[in-house]
UniProtKB/TrEMBL annotation:
<dbReference type="InterPro" id="IPR027417">
    <property type="entry name" value="P-loop_NTPase"/>
</dbReference>
<dbReference type="GO" id="GO:0005524">
    <property type="term" value="F:ATP binding"/>
</dbReference>
<protein>
    <submittedName>
        <fullName>Daunorubicin resistance ABC transporter, ATP-binding protein</fullName>
    </submittedName>
</protein>
<keyword id="KW-0067">ATP-binding</keyword>
<keyword id="KW-0547">Nucleotide-binding</keyword>
Amino acid sequence: MTQKAIYKILRAENQQNKTTIVTTSHYVKDMEQLADRLLILNQGALIFDDDCDQLVNNLVTRKLFDVEYLAKGQIVKVTWSAAELFSKVAELEPENILTIKQRGVSLEELISQLIEEAR
C-alpha cells in the first residue's frame, strides 16, 4: 500500500466517523498531509500544542538571513535568525559583507527553532 493510499484511508476515517487518529512521525510531509493539531515533543517535553494554522503563522513571522562574508580571504556562508543577524553583523567589517538575503523558514527549520528555544 502506498503512502498516498494510507493518507486517503486515514482522512476518510477521520471525516466519516469523526475519529481522532493519533500518529507519530519524524516526517514533516506526514504532518502537513494528516494533522489538524500538532503536538511536538522534544525529549519527552511538550514544546508545541496547537493547530497546523498556528504553526504556519509561526513560519510567516520568523525570518532567516543567508549571509555571505569574507573571513581570512575565504567566502563564508551562514544562516542567521533576525536576532543573531544584528549582533553577528556588528562584529564584521562592513567591507567584508558580500550579501545578506532574507527568506522565510521551512517547516523543518521552524521545528528545529522550537526545539532550540525549549532548551
